[in-house]
């Protein structure tokens, strides 16, 4: 009996000690060094999203390193703080909180999936910090504390559909996506847009698949069947990262050629193609705001630096990387203009900041916290790169509230004073959504 | 009667656990709200939420230990009950947002608005009332567990077969909740909560109150669990863990015993989920992921299977490690975590709480306490009696 | 490729004799290919093909292959092929050598999808008279697709000359397609339309169905329309039949993927009783081994790339098997008799292995190419069967058969069965049980590695590869009955087929949910799986 008590009390006191120890360790305020400006990097380095997000962590480290070589910011060095939210959405919120309240970062660059952004959004609003979100997304959101440097649907999806309609004379559409909010919303917008252009409902096929779907035989066969109705058919793919490789492999194997049924993708970039043999995919399309193959001096230098930084000649660049490049430079400029890293002042200074992008123009931050970007359409080449076949003549401003959805068409966002509102209703003249 | 039930299970161990919980329940609010921020004894709200999260996981681990440690049912799907409880609470919190969503719709949550839904699905009705949501937190996981257990135990599905179908259950629920057509927000889940019972969910006092509620729930569950274990019912449970057939041959209706423990455990997991959601601010289908359930099993194993305190210790410790390593060693933490699991199973077969016993056994002579002997798999099976 | 080469040679002979005559006429058109962007190129291409001169074929083929360049200095259109850092230039029409040029001195004439379509159409029209039956066949198919009315004349002439039955049928179908859909349709007699309709009905695929539907809805006479409609309905029935068969094939193919993924687990989990959560990582290691082998081939023997998969098979077996043996010796062997604890330890190992691969190879996908004999598809009746899937089905069954033989017919298999059935007795009979344990685990892991080679052909090669298959594998083994290989086979094929038959009705997500619910209910009915082991060894 005595031994039993001994053992159990050993364990229990271990528990007690740990609990107290934990509290004490958390209670210690983090040592904030005053001679550096901390920048948080919140990208998954493990789990399902690591495949896409790790690259963005690396590019942030490169950009920060670069800025430090140029003498830092406001006379101080920048210090990256990297954490791993491990593709776990509640952990994203926890890590965001840790970055802001424990590490005292001045701004955070991070997130990829919509759900991770939704998860951290309340944290950034509560603790009043800045998030730069670099990925194309579904729109329908504008927060004072978030700057969206990726594409809104009107900067990617709609120009791509326009291109197919005009140049490829497509009349029949397959909208294929992974079942989550970005494809759902994008397809909703596209469906409304296509119908407004006179496409009949029977000429639109919508298909959703789960994350990481790997057996595409039936769906590709369905697409072929749908495409053999005598009208020119195209597939608009919002299929998410991981599922794309088996999808394209199946397309190649079943002989779906771009000349017959082109597939235009919004989530497939150079990084995703790096895992596939692209010869059978020649001519399939992607719509982005940046391609590695764009020939500008700025891009050439960026690629050179990237390859040197990663010490790997085969590493590719992609659109979200450019978004971070733009976002980081905008933040640097805004901090310099505000003369401080205080989030309130930086947020005010951000609107109107314009920095060069990598495709030979300037991107500007709009009052709705989205940016202006050119829209490029590229065709897949045999070497895994894209050949740009179309580029919008000017820059397209990001539209956060889609004009093609009934509940958001009356909304606008403008974070300049005195309006300072993310969902202003132009019909009712009030801030706060539809207000029905 | 009820009092006697609670007191019956209270041994010295329970006393220590409950004392620690009581200290936490008092010290944390004081240290957070009243100790000035520059004092070394001040606790940030961030820490409070973190501790609250750990304790929710501890409650889940406790629930799991009740069925695994005491009745031999290895559930690899307990996170499903946790997540369902979380969704019930999340639905209440969503309804509380009211017209403050981005579209300003007074009834429909934002995700329904942009999917063009016109009215609330029937299963969302009633969730604007806290009492209703609170009942659902217990009833839905409980009912699911009862139905699942009733079929499974009656058919005498045991061992790995049971474990794998609990995985199938949680995986099926994961896929179902991913579907946007289900009306639970799809992959984005439920988020952007504003307030709970009329209090701002982001206010420090609310967070502290939620933490205290979690401590209370954990303490209560601990007392219930230890009460059950100390009762005659608990003895039967342990007996059927060790030799189910023999207990059955003695005339016990083993299915009912198992079903009771199983359903009780699922309800506890549901409560854990319900407390978890307002503290982390999001509930989404990834909580149903098969890996989350396996992780919960690992907490129990690390702490010590078959000791309620061990389950709590394991859950808190592993999650603290995870929080620390994902920040300190972002690239390497999986090695640390993976290595920990291997090391615990190899060197601490009884978990951390068994460590003392192991050390003690080691002292007289090292030879006797070498690593556990290689035991043939089917040899033990024979002993159990097929 | 070979076909194209042969054609090129044939053309060269023709060109050599007639160059002098044609080159002058084509020169301005070829020159026009290089200016005016995509639309300019397309316009010139159409004129070039309307000229109807076979001498244009190599030029168009060069354009298709991306070998046609513009020399920046004087704007001449040339064929340029990369030779080291520079390009070797030749004249597209006369094939005279024009010397070398650095990469900066030439600019590629870029093509997009609509140009690619125009190229196939014009090559089709221009090569109908080729001396090679294969080329004529594909030309006819190209014309069938493009329904280019300007090719009608050539097509009619070609049909008259054609000796090969198959090729003539293809040409006649192409002709019927042009006749029925072009402007010519309104001038045709009912008999002609009827004949064309019959030709298409004989073709009997989905493309024919589209055209027949057009006829049924066109302004032809009622009798024609009625016969077209009848043809449509017979065709639709036929196609529905083939579609069901096709679905069965998809089910078989998905089932064989599941079988491959699960079969290694059937050894480590089914036979040994180790709940091996690191099984998926063994599959992943196999896939990465394939990647490494292919990298080696790419770097040292690009010509032998088609053999890389064959080399990868034993390599993956050895690497995964070796890792398995190391795991067994270092971790698993301490845990026999505690199956649930193997779950925890192997789960930890799986986390560490994933992270190790991520650290070594990076988190992004790695490219594993398909050898030529695994790419593409062929038609079997109304079925489209892709070579990759076919080989995977064959491979899965081969692995299954080999494993069965190994377990039932060899000394090693006998030892495995002896040890799992009665360890002390086997030990007493002189079997070195520890060694058998290690080798059995190695065998299971090695088979998982083989599965990795196959899966690398259809899925991502990323650190998460294994995660996607682990749960499915467990489902298959448990559904089939732990410890029974035949159960695993039947389980995999049943679940695969069921999934594919549910998918068209319920969608991919709901289909999968229904399969999972089916498994849960099935286990209630048969708590030990499909093929339950009898006797004392049942409680794992």
Give a description of the structure.
The complex is a heterotrimer of chains A (436), B (386) and C (540). Chain A is globular, with a radius of gyration of 24 Å. In chain A, a hairpin with a 5-residue loop joins strand 14 (376-380) and strand 15. Chain A has helices at residues 2-27, 50-69, 89-102, 114-127, 157-167, 181-196, 217-226, 241-253, 270-273, 297-310, 319-338, 343-350; strands at residues 36-42, 77-83, 107-110, 131-133, 146-148, 172-178, 204-209, 233-238, 263-265, 285-288, 354-356, 362-364, 372-373, 376-380, 386-391, 396-397, 411-414, 421-425, 430-431. In chain A, the strands form five sheets. Chain A has a seven-stranded mixed sheet, sandwiched between helices. Chain A has a five-stranded parallel sheet with strand order 2-1-3-4-5, with helices on both faces. Chain A has a three-stranded antiparallel sheet with strand order 17-18-19, with no helix packed on it. Chain A has two domains: 30-151 and 296-373, Response regulator (Rossmann fold, 3-Layer(aba) Sandwich); 157-265, Rossmann fold, CATH 3.40.50. Chain A is of the alpha/beta class. Mean pLDDT of chain A is 87; it is low at 1-32. In chain B, helix 3 (45-71) runs parallel beside helix 8, helix 4 (78-97) runs antiparallel to helix 6 (130-154) and helix 6 (130-154) runs antiparallel to helix 11 (254-280). With 386 residues, chain B is an all-alpha fold. Chain B has one domain (2-288). In chain B, the strands form two sheets. Chain B has a two-stranded antiparallel ribbon with strand order 1-4. Helices cover 68% and strands 2% of the residues of chain B. The two termini of chain B are 39 Å apart. Residues 365-386 of chain B have low confidence and may be disordered. Chain B contains 16 helices and four strands. Chain C is 69% helix and 6% strand. A five-stranded antiparallel sheet of chain C has the order 4-3-2-1-5. In chain C, strands 6-7 form a two-stranded antiparallel sheet. Chain C is an alpha+beta fold. The model of chain C is unreliable at 11-21 and 535-540 (pLDDT under 50). The two termini of chain C are 56 Å apart. At the A-B interface, helix 1, helix 3, helix 4, helix 6 and strand 18 of A face helix 2, helix 3, helix 5, helix 13 and helix 15 of B.
């Amino acid at each position: 009996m005595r031994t039993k008590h001994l053992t159990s009390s050993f364990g229990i006191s271990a528990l007690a000690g740990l609990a107290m120890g934990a509290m004490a360790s958390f209670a210690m305020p983090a040592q904030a060094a005053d001679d550096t400006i901390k920048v948080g990097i919140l990208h998954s380095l493990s789990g399902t999203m690591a495949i896409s997000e790790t690259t963005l962590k690396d590019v942030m480290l490169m950009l920060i390193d670069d800025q430090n070589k140029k003498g830092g910011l406001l006379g101080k060095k920048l210090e990256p703080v990297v954490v791993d939210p491990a593709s776990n959405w509640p952990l994203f919120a926890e890590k965001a909180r840790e970055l802001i309240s424990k590490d005292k970062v001045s701004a955070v660059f991070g997130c990829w999936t919509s759900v991770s952004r939704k998860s951290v959004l309340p944290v950034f609003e509560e603790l009043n910090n800045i998030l730069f979100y670099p990925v194309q997304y579904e729109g329908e959101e504008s927060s004072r504390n978030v700057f969206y440097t990726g594409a809104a649907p009107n900067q990617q999806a709609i120009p791509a559909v326009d291109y197919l309609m005009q140049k490829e004379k497509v009349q029949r559409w397959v909208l294929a996506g992974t079942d989550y909010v970005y494809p759902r919303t994008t397809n909703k917008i596209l469906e409304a847009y296509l119908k407004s252009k006179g496409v009949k409902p029977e000429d639109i096929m919508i298909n959703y698949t789960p994350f990481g779907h790997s057996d595409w035989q039936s769906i590709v066969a369905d697409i072929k069947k749908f495409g053999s109705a005598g009208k020119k058919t195209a597939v608009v793919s919002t299929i998410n990262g991981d599922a794309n490789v088996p999808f394209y492999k199946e397309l190649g194997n079943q002989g779906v050629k771009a000349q017959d049924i082109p597939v235009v993708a919004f989530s497939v970039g150079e990084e995703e193609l790096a895992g596939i043999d692209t010869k059978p995919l020649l001519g399939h399309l992607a719509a982005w705001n940046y391609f590695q193959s764009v020939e500008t001096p700025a891009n050439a230098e960026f690629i050179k630096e990237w390859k040197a930084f990663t010490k790997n000649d085969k590493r590719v660049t992609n659109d979200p990387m450019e978004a971070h490049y733009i976002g980081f430079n905008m933040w640097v400029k805004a901090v310099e203009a505000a003369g401080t890293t205080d989030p309130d002042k930086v947020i005010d200074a951000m609107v109107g900041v314009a920095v060069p992008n990598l495709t030979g123009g300037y991107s500007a931050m709009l009052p709705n916290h989205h940016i202006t970007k050119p829209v490029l359409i590229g065709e897949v080449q045999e070497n895994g790169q894209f050949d740009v076949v179309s580029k919008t003549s000017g820059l397209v401003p990001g539209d956060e509230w889609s004009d093609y959805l009934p509940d958001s068409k009356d909304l606008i966002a403008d974070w300049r004073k005195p309006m300072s509102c993310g969902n202003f209703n132009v019909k009712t003249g009030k801030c706060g959504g539809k207000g029905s | 009667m009820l009092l006697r039930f609670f007191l019956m299970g209270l041994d010295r161990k329970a006393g220590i656990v409950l004392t620690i919980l009581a200290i936490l329940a008092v010290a944390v609010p004081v240290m957070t709200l009243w100790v000035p921020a520059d004092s070394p004894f001040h606790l940030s709200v961030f820490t409070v939420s973190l501790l609250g999260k750990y304790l929710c996981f501890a409650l889940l681990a406790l629930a799991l230990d009740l069925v695994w440690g005491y009745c031999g049912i290895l559930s690899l799907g307990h996170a499903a009950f946790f997540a369902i409880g979380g969704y019930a609470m999340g639905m209440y919190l969503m309804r509380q947002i009211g017209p403050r969503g981005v579209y300003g719709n007074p009834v429909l949550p934002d995700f329904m608005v942009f999917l063009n839904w016109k009215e609330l699905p029937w299963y969302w009705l009633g969730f604007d009332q806290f009492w209703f949501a609170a009942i659902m937190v217990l009833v839905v996981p409980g009912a699911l567990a009862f139905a699942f257990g009733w079929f499974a135990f009656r058919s005498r599905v045991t061992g790995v077969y049971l474990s794998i179908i609990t995985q199938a259950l949680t995986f099926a629920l994961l896929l179902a909740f991913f579907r946007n057509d289900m009306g639970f927000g799809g992959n984005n889940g439920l988020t952007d909560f504003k307030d709970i019972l009329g209090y701002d969910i982001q206010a420090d006092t609310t967070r502290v109150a939620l933490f205290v509620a979690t401590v209370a729930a954990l303490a209560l569950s601990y007392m219930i669990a230890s009460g059950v274990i100390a009762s005659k019912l608990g003895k039967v449970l342990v007996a059927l863990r060790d030799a189910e057939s023999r207990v059955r041959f003695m005339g016990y209706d083993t299915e009912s015993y198992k079903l009771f423990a199983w359903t009780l455990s699922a309800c506890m997991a549901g409560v854990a989920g319900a407390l978890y959601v307002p503290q982390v601010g999001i509930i989404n289908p990834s909580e149903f992921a098969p890996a989350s359930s396996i992780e919960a099993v690992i907490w129990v194993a690390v702490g010590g299977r078959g000791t309620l305190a061990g389950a709590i210790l394991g859950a808190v410790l592993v999650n603290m490690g995870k929080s620390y390593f994902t920040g300190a060693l972002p690239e390497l933490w999986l090695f640390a975590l993976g290595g920990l699991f291997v090391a615990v199973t190899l060197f601490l077969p009884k978990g951390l709480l068994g460590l003392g016993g192991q050390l003690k056994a080691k002292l007289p002579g090292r030879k006797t306490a070498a690593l556990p002997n290689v035991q043939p798999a089917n040899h033990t099976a024979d002993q159990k009696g097929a | 490729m070979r076909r194209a080469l042969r054609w090129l040679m044939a053309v060269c002979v023709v060109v050599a004799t007639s160059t002098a005559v044609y080159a002058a006429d084509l020169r301005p058109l070829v020159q026009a290919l290089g200016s005016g962007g995509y639309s300019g190129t397309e316009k010139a291409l159409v004129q070039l093909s309307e000229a109807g001169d076979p001498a244009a074929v190599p030029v168009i083929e060069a354009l298709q292959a991306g070998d046609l360049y513009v020399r920046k200095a004087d704007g001449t259109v040339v064929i340029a092929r990369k030779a080291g850092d520079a390009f070797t230039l030749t004249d597209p029409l006369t094939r005279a050598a024009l010397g070398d040029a650095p990469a900066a001195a030439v600019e590629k004439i870029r093509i997009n999808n609509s140009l690619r379509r125009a190229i196939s159409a014009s090559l089709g029209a221009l090569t109908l008279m080729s001396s090679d039956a294969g080329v004529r066949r594909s030309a006819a198919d190209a014309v069938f697709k493009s329904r280019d009315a300007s090719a009608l004349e050539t097509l009619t002439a070609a049909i008259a000359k054609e000796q090969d039955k198959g090729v003539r049928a293809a040409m006649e179908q192409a002709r019927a397609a042009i006749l029925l859909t072009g402007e010519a349709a309104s001038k045709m007699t009912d008999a002609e339309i009827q004949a064309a309709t019959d030709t298409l009905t004989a073709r009997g695929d989905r493309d024919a169905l589209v055209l027949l539907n057009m006829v049924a809805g066109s302004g032809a006479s009622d009798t024609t329309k009625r016969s077209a409609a009848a043809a449509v309905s017979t065709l639709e029935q036929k196609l529905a039949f083939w579609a069901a068969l096709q679905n069965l094939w998809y089910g078989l193919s998905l089932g064989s993927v599941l079988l491959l993924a699960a079969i290694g687990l059937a050894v480590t989990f089914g036979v040994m009783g180790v709940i091996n959560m690191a099984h998926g990582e063994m599959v992943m290691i196999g896939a990465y081994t394939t990647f490494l082998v292919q990298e080696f081939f790419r770097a040292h023997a690009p010509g032998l790339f088609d053999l890389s998969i064959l080399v990868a098979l034993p390599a993956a077996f050895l690497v995964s098997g070796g890792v398995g043996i190391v795991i067994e010796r270092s971790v698993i062997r301490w845990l026999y008799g505690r199956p649930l604890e193997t779950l925890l330890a192997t789960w930890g190992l799986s986390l560490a292995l994933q992270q190790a691969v991520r650290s070594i190879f990076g988190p992004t996908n790695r490219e594993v190419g398909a050898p030529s004999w695994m790419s593409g598809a062929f038609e079997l009746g109304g079925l489209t069967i892709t070579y990759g899937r076919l080989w995977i089905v064959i491979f899965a069954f081969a692995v299954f058969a080999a494993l069965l033989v190994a377990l039932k017919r060899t000394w090693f298999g006998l030892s495995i069965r002896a040890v799992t059935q009665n360890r002390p007795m086997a030990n007493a009979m002189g079997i070195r049980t520890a060694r058998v344990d290690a080798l059995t685990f190695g065998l299971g892991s090695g088979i998982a590695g083989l599965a990795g080679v196959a899966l690398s052909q259809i899925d991502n090669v990323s650190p998460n590869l294994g995660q996607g298959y682990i749960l499915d594998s467990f489902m298959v083994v448990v559904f089939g009955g732990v410890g029974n290989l035949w159960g695993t086979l039947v389980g995999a094929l049943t679940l695969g087929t069921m999934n594919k038959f549910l998918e068209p009705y319920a969608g991919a997500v709901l289909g999968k949910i229904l399969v999972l619910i089916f498994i849960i209910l099935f286990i209630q009915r048969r708590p030990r799986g499909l093929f339950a082991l009898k006797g004392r060894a049942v409680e794992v």
